[in-house]
Structures are given as C-alpha cells and as structure tokens.
Amino acid sequence: MNKVILSLLLLIGMTCQAEVSNPELQRVNENVEILRLQFENLIGENKSLKRDVSNLQSVVESLNTRLHTVETKSDSIYNALMSEVISNTELANANHAAATERIQVVETYSKNKIHKLTVWGVWAIVLLLIIAIVVYIILHRNITNSKDAISTIKDVQNKLEEESVKLDTKLVELLDNQIQTEKQIKQSVSKVAPVLDHTLALKLADEITRIEKNLSRMDPSVKGYKPLVKAIERIKDNFKANGYEIVTYIGQPYNEGMRVNADFVIDEELPEGTRTITSVSKPQVHYNGELIQKATITVTQNI
C-alpha cells in the first residue's frame, strides 16, 4: 500500500513536470519532496506504534502468566496447610485413643497379675488419664478459637506425648515392681517345686516393645522422654539378670532363616531386592538362651 502511494506521488510529479514551466516545476518538485518526506515519517511512526503495541501485548501476556502462577501457588499453599491441620488433628485423636487403650491394659494387667499394687497406684493412673483428657479438651477448645490452627495442634500433640510419657513411666515403675515381686515369688517357690511360668515375662516384654515403639515416633525433647528411656534400660537389665533376653529386629534385613512370624508389605520406592523389618508387634524372647517366644514382625520389601 505504501509503495502504491509513493508511485502515485511520483506520477503526479512527472505529470506536473510536463505541464508547467521550470520555476513552477521546481516548486512542484519541492512540494512533492516535502510530501514524500512527511509520508515516510508517517510510515516510520506507524511502524514505531506497531512495535509499542506488540511490546504492550507481550507485557500483558507476561503479567497474565505471573498472575496465574501466583494463583496456583496460593491454592497449593492453602491445600498444604489444610492437609497438615487434618493430619495433626488425626494424630492428636490417635494419641488420645492410644492413651485410653494403654490405661485399660494397665488396669486389666493389674487385676490379673500384680497382687501388691495399692489402691493409690491405680487411682494415680486413673488421675493421669483424667488429666490427659481434661488437657486434651481444653486444648481442643483452644484449637477451635485459635487463629493459628497448625501451631495449636502441635502444642496439643506435645501435651499428649508428655502425658503419654507420664503414663508409660508409671507403667514402667509398676512393671519394675512386678519383676521384683515375681523374682521373690520364684525364689520362694523354687525351694518347694521349681515351676517355670514365663507368662508375666512375656507380657512385660510386649509392653517394653510397645513403649519403645512409641518413643521412636516422639521428639526426644518431649518432657520425660529421657527418664523413660533410662527406666526401660533398667528394666531390660533386670530382665537380663533374670535370664531373659529381648530381641526386636527393628531396622534389620529380613532373611528366610529367621524364626519369626512375619507379615509382608510391598513398597516399590525401596531399592529392588530390599527386605527390611520395619515394625515389631511382639518381640523375640529367650530364657537362658532358649527361645520362648517368636517375634511377630512386619517386613517392608520390594522383590
């Protein structure tokens, strides 16, 4: 289009050159040259405007892309926060249920095996349970009214873990007392008729394994954590002194030659051929080197 207009201007100039005299022809040529220069300036300005429009369109597209990215990140952060809130709430409920279950186990065990426990000891356990429930209810209400739900749920988790450690510590004390009582009973009975009954020892071994499993999931900074670990070590030493040995196998490779009861779980993220013992519900127990209880384990594998 631009070339056509320039051609017309040149044609007009040539036509005028044929019809006018030299002075007039010179003025016409000057006017035509001025028009041509103005037209070329307009063409240049038009191209510049087109470039500016193209640049603006690129900026708009870039802004739209950034806006979409911000919206996507906002949704991702929101979903992550909600997922963590739900996960922590479920963990708090699970800890509360576990605490209640442990109290029931202690009460049943006390009725059947522990003959020298006082009423005050039982009431102390019940009182700890009531305190745990009250703390949970109070903190649960605070969760509802709190602006920072994630932080509050973590506080609840820490409180429940502390209460759990207190309950386990009390249970360890009771187990330790029962070991001493059982030792005295065996000493007195052995003078009459040496009858071996490993029932209590096996139950104690199961409880020790359960407590160690819970401790492995806790933060060592939880109040009462270190004293409970030392108490467990003390009970194990007493166990060993009485001829008993507890084997848990946690974290060890699994092989077919092990004398255990095993459940198997597939995990394709493990290196191929890996078979690792990841959980123990019942430990392996030896008495004077003789196997008296097979371990019940869970093996995570990828074969």
Quaternary state of this entry equals: single chain
Number of strands: 6
Distance between the termini: 74 Å
Q: List SSEs in N-to-C order.
A: HHHHHHEEEEEE
Binned, the helix content reads over 70%
Overall pLDDT: 77
In what range is the share of β-strand residues? 5-15%
Q: Any low-confidence stretches, pLDDT <50, length ≥5?
A: 16-21
Shape: elongated
Structural class: mainly alpha
Describe this structure in words.
- The protein is mainly α and 303 residues long.
- Helices cover 70% and strands 12% of the residues.
- The chain contains 6 helices and 6 strands; from the N terminus they run ααααααββββββ.
- Strands 1-4-5 form a 3-stranded antiparallel beta sheet.
In short:
This protein is mainly alpha-helical. The protein has helices at residues 2-19, 22-112, 119-145, 149-190, 199-216, 225-241, and strands spanning 244-247, 260-266, 274-282, 284-287, 290-293, 295-302. Helix content is 70%, strand content 12%.
SSE diagram, text form:
Layout: H1 2-19, H2 22-112, H3 119-145, H4 149-190, H5 199-216, H6 225-241, E1 244-247, E2 260-266, E3 274-282, E4 284-287, E5 290-293, E6 295-302
Parallel strand pairs: 2-6
Antiparallel strand pairs: 1-4, 3-6, 4-5
Helix pairs in contact: 1-2, 2-3, 2-4, 3-4, 4-5, 4-6, 5-6
Tags for this model:
single chain, 303 residues, mainly alpha, 3-stranded antiparallel beta sheet, 3-stranded mixed beta sheet, 6 helices, 12% strand, elongated
